[in-house]
Amino acid sequence: MFYLHFSNTQMLAKQHKTNIELQQIKEALEQENANKLKFFASVTHELRTPLNAIIGFAELIKNETLGSMDNSQYKEYADDIYNAGTHLLTLINDVLDFSKAESSSLTVEKVKFNLNKIIDSCVNMLLPKLKEAGINLKKEMTNKQLLVIADPKRMKQVIINLLSNSIKFTPKDGLIRMVIKENIEKNLLTIEFHDNGIGIMQQDIYKVMSVFGQADSGYRNEGTGIGLPLSKKLVELMGGTFDIKSEAKLGTTITLNFFYEEQTCEDSIDF
């Protein structure tokens, strides 16, 4: 009897010690994560100010605000500075948005707006990049106005992120399909992004959906790798769903679902 009591006491003491150790590990990981998010927020704020200045001065040179420049090479340099600065600012904003989303401090609007105009704007913005990469984009959607309930600014950010990701991993002469479908019974609007790029192995999908994660592929690409996880968080904050399916060497399909209303745009916000 004494032996059983002693064994139970030992077991309980061991379990208590294990619980304390697990709690300490949990707290350490939570603190590490909090420090990481705080660091990212601090860095992005510090870098954003000089980058805005770089872009501003580059615009002055590019637009020849202070007078004509005889050497056209200066304008080419200004274009390079402006494009690089704009790209870096976009990356920084993505990191800052993700850190806010992780700490539950990122807010989104939920308003009704015309999705057609947002999509057309995003596609037009990316036409130079598509042309440079030699990739075709096919847009499949109805001509009627589609009213979606979400955040128009964040929706634009998501669409540009996802199309840019497809462009990055699709080879020359490849095809990207953007399909917008309605499910009237469920009041759902589905946006699909299909590409025939390098794809991702099934076991690697979790890597590209985690912060800075990149699946192993035939070549490396620049970027933070934050575009997909940020897009997923933004979609979910807007009340939508985000799904990704991919096969290595065959391509990737990303599907978004949002609530929408089928009516005129008289009471919607125009962007």
What does this structure look like?
The protein is of the alpha+beta class and 271 residues long. It has 2 domains: 1-103, Helix Hairpins; 111-259, Heat Shock Protein 90 (2-Layer Sandwich). 53% of the residues lie in helices and 18% in strands. The protein contains 6 helices and 7 strands; from the N terminus they run ααβαββαββααββ. The protein has helices at 2-62, 72-102, 115-133, 152-169, 205-208, 227-237; strands at residues 111-114, 136-140, 147-150, 175-183, 188-195, 241-247, 251-261. Strands 1, 2, 3, 4, 5, 6 and 7 form a 7-stranded mixed beta sheet that branches. Helix 1 (2-62) runs antiparallel to helix 2, helix 2 (72-102) crosses helix 6 and helix 4 runs antiparallel to helix 6. The longest helix is centred in the N-terminal third of the chain and has 61 residues, at 2-62. The mean pLDDT is 82.
